[in-house]
What does this fold into?
Amino acid sequence: MSGMKITKPDGTVVEIDKSMLKSLSPEQLTALISSLTQPVQTQVPSKPQEPATKILRTPEEIWNSGKRERVGLFLANQYAVGVVLETTDIHRDWMESLVSKNYDLYIEKSHLTQYLTRLAEMGYLKKEKIQGRGIRWTILQKLHDDYPQVPIENFHKIALEIT
It folds into this structure.
């Protein structure tokens, strides 16, 4: 025998040479033949996916949601899309703009890194590890799309009065 020739139900011809057949275990050969001889599954066209409706939240709701959400709102209102920052830059700006006015908003840098990582996993930031330097974060458009833009005076009012 010089090999095997299988014609699939859709008309495609598959040839398997003798050396290939010898190298396959009986289980592999059975799986290969059964996968080649099964009828072609026709996919039923599904309904077009409707775009996800964006849930509009107020800055106050976001601020009251939790620290990660607070950091997201802060980033969206503090930096433009495409800005590249290190964790120390973000922590310094957080400290200068919020903590200097209300110490209850203090976040340790290690905790801030965790919140930034979660935001990156959600697609709001791009995380890039720089050898010997730490992590760089790039602000992505999705952050500005999902978090409301608030004039900086109103942002400080929300951040300092709600807390």
Observations:
- The mean pLDDT is 82.
- The CA atoms of residues 39 and 108 lie 60 Å apart.
